[in-house]
């Protein structure tokens, strides 16, 4: 789905940016152009970026690394 009509940025591109380490909406705008023209998509883009980061950004604990002192 297109999130930023002005610059042709899709939800897939936003998720890819999150996987590639994009942390903020400002960085997303720099990488993709999303929101750079009129800005009406920034709320939705920010929500998608946050959701994608939460999905992909959780490190798994290493088993056995939590030993009692």
UniProtKB/TrEMBL annotation:
The keyword Metal-binding applies. InterPro entries: BFD-associated_ferredoxin, BFD-like_2Fe2S-bd_dom, BFD-like_2Fe2S-bd_dom_sf. Its cofactor is [2Fe-2S] cluster. It comes from the Bacteria. Gene3D superfamilies: BFD-like [2Fe-2S]-binding domain. The keyword Iron-sulfur applies. Belongs to the Bfd family. This is Bacterioferritin-associated ferredoxin.
